[in-house]
Prior knowledge:
Layout: H1 13-38, E1 44-46, E2 55-57, H2 60-71, H3 75-78, H4 85-117, H5 136-161, H6 164-170, H7 172-176, H8 178-184, H9 189-196
Antiparallel strand pairs: 1-2
Amino acid sequence: MTKKVSLTYITNDSARKATFKKRKKGLMKKANELSTLCDIQACVIIYSQYESHPEVWPSPLGVQHIVSQFRSLPEMDQSKKMVNQETFLRQRIVKAKEQLKKLRKENREKEMSRVMFQTDCPVPPTPAAVPAAGDHALNLNMQATMERQAFGLSNMGNTMQRPSWFTDMMNPNEQMGFGAVAEVLPFGDQYHHGLWSNNPFFP
Length: 203
């Protein structure tokens, strides 16, 4: 795995010189590949403290020809896509911020959809657990969905707290008709004797 290079000034002289020679060679190679593969006119001019004269590619004559063509263009075309290091970094920062904003929006929409359509959630999510959204209508729909889920779970809890057999036990007279039997069947000695006289297990 290649180690990530920190783009900071190399304070060590020998290390800086070695890096310069290595990167310069790579730059020349890339310029040659770009010119050959894409059929474009390119040149490289490098000024450094290590050489008394600038180093050029592909040749001094070739560099002069390309520079002359560039200067013959209108000033507007010359600076159309020209940037310095500060402008380049600013453009990259703006692009990165836009990409981050897009990813946050996509993640927020996915999270809101998951919350709105998750009907089997055992505990209704709270609004604080959902990322803030810019669309007020989506927030209202999500809030209404969570309230419906909470209401449904509350009713389910009330129903489960009092099952049917518990209700029957609490109202035995209505379910089993004991009141009517008590009115029809007397509890005197005569009835007791007649009821069990034919039973071989009771004298």
